[in-house]
Amino acid sequence: MLDHLNDNAETPERVVVVGSRGFIGAALVARLKRDGIPALPLSSADIDLTQTGSDEALAARLRATDAVVMLSCRTPDKGRDLGTTMQNLAMGYNFAMAAAKVGCRHVVYFSSDAVYADDTQWVTDDTKAEPNSPYGAMHLTREVLLKSTMAKVLAVIRPTLVYGLADTHSSYGPNRFRRMSEKDAKISLFGAGEERRDHIFIDDLIELTLKVLRRRSVGMVLGVTGRSPSFGEIAALVAAQSEPPAAIVELPRANPAAPILHRHFDISGVLSAFPDTRYTTIEDGLALVQRQAREAAHA
Prior knowledge:
The chain is of the alpha/beta class. It contains 9 helices and 13 strands. It has a domain at 2-165 and 199-226 and 263-279: Rossmann fold, CATH 3.40.50. Helices cover 38% and strands 18% of the residues. The strands form 4 sheets. It has a 7-stranded mixed β-sheet with strand order 1-11-7-5-4-2-3, with helices on both faces. The protein has a two-stranded parallel ribbon with strand order 6-13. Helix 1 crosses helix 6 (202-215) and helix 3 (82-102) runs parallel beside helix 4 (134-150). The longest helix has 21 residues, at 82-102.
């Protein structure tokens, strides 16, 4: 749940975006600029948070009046390799030390719904974080680091799967399906795509982030929509919206004996914090991304 330190929405004096070159970071910086909110984008090219002494380098760039959004994270193969996990932990530690040293006015940390066990099929604000993947454990550890130093000004956003035109990860779901349809007019689907997952459109996640920043919210909020279509339904939508319509090819599941898991979210916490929240439907979001892709191809 979130509490608001600002009774009314206020424009932050400056928003520092750490991890500004990533999919979410770049979208946030663009929105801040569009809204006329002063922003300082920082990427690993500016400060490599995996390096010793990077906490001092970051602290030198921060002000006590800043709102700071931490997005920097390396995610190849969901961080299953130990080296990537340790780099991410070092980044989290150095960021936490820098923010605490400066005493920033507001800190927003982007975590992940991977902090919940893989077989957790119903998630609420009260669901216990019990990660069973290195990636989820890393995010939870970084949350704990920040809570130990900045709890009074910390907001944690735990997003689910995010889709949008500029996504670079191409993980299984809308982003990969669109690229498959563009390349070969075919979409490969494991089994019949029965698994259900929540997917949030990038613009909606950025809108939620702006609300958290303007109200100087603290606590935890789920970056989710409350709707969990199946991968088969998403593939069918992408296929129908493609020009020409793409074919769907069903592939054998990697482990046919493994249980088919779904994940649903309760969004009452989001609606309690921001009653005016409205989410783009998966149908409208996918159609918008398709239009954006066509426009980019003809630009």
